Model the fold of this input.
Amino acid sequence: MKKDEGVCETCGCIALLTRHHLVPQSRTKNRYKDLKDDPSNVIMICRPCHDAIHAAYDETELRNLYQTKEKLMAAPEFAKFIAWRRKHPEFKGSSKMGNRRR
Done:
């Protein structure tokens, strides 16, 4: 494995990893301010999974509905992507999910 490679915490693929904040940094004000630098608020995931999360959910939804790894993994749109991703570990591109934020 390369230096920055590891096992994605969501799909289990070996890939370059990125930091995903479960409660987005832009939403860590007021009652969530303690989460901004909290390691429990961060999971290490591959770029395709990271892109899929942000294509499916806006930051308010991530903060209010999917603020734990367990809740995120159970989210219908993301669960569908994870099932597909596990069948296609060689996939390195962007998510095929539509971006609802546009």
